[in-house]
Amino acid sequence: TRINSPLRSTITDISYDQYQLIWAGPQGGGFFKLDPKSLQIWYDPEYINPYKKLPHVTVSSIYTDTELNVWLASWDPTIYKGSAGDLLTKPVVIPQKQLDEADEATCFVNQGPHTLWVGTKKSGLLIYDTKSGKWTSVKNTDSDLASNTIHCLYKDPLNNIWIGTSEGMSLYTQADKSILTPIKLPANSGRKNGQVYDFLPISDSQIWIASGNGLFEWSNNSLKVVPAKWNQKQPAITALYKSVNGIVYIGTDIS
């Protein structure tokens, strides 16, 4: 079913809340909610003119946390907190001292109660205490973070956190909470692009990794290549999605 955005723009990310309503972030301003059953759409007229409420016109990432708050990132050093019952969001400004110039949030994940990890484009990992409002910065100059450019964050069933970056990935484990373990991706079919774009759990012990070097699987504490070629060529794998009936869809830089 084709659904036209009321804000007439490209959709950059989607998530859903506790009522199974879809939140969509369009390029060009604001966001809206959609009921997938009735296809009813809600949006605040104030967001039609995004400069009234948002510091930037683009919502770039949406994440629903374990407490069912909805977090939005924009092309500015500001993230927004919403809830299933509210349409308007509360802005949370990232302190300038935590960011490189003209940086932005790229992704989110819950590390635990009241602890939100925020990936950024240039400033590494930021850890936000949602209760106290305190920010903590983690960069590759003072840790084993693979790179300060973070594309994706994923928490596995064992509560380990996977950090996908522009130069491989880092793993935060519950066994050793003080250490980030960097993991470099091997070359694959001649490709040596270490960008990690997405993670997908295949089972409790298997994780697929989308990267510039192709598709990999992590299992038994090791990486192996998952064949995913197109016309005998190895594309970059940019996104992964598994449907409710178990079909895995793979996004690439080709199709």
Question: Short description, anyone?
Answer:
The protein has no helices and 22 strands. With 255 residues, it is mainly β.
Secondary-structure map:
Elements: E1 11-16, E2 22-26, E3 32-34, E4 41-42, E5 59-64, E6 69-74, E7 76-83, E8 90-93, E9 105-112, E10 115-120, E11 125-129, E12 135-138, E13 150-155, E14 161-165, E15 168-172, E16 180-183, E17 196-203, E18 206-211, E19 214-219, E20 222-226, E21 237-242, E22 248-252
Antiparallel strand pairs: 1-2, 2-3, 3-4, 5-6, 6-7, 7-8, 9-10, 10-11, 11-12, 13-14, 14-15, 15-16, 17-18, 18-19, 19-20, 21-22
Structure description:
This protein has 255 residues and is mainly β. Helix content is 0%, strand content 47%. It is built from no helices and 22 strands. The strands form six sheets. A four-stranded antiparallel sheet has the order 1-2-3-4, with no helix packed on it. Strands 5-6-7-8 form a four-stranded antiparallel sheet, with no helix packed on it.
What's the alpha carbon Rg, rounded to whole Å? 18 Å
Stretches with pLDDT under 50, minimum 5 residues? 50-55
N-end to C-end Cα span: 21 Å
Q: Taking all residues together, what is the mean pLDDT? A: 79
Helix content class? under 10%
What form results from the Cα inertia axes? globular
- According to DSSP, the number of beta strands is 22
Strand pairing plus helix content: what structural class?
A: mainly beta
Strand order of the largest sheet: 1-2-3-4
Determine the number of helices (DSSP H or I, runs of at least 4 residues). 0
Q: Could you give the order of the helices and strands?
A: EEEEEEEEEEEEEEEEEEEEEE
Strand percentage: over 45%
The major sheet is characterized as: 4 strands, antiparallel
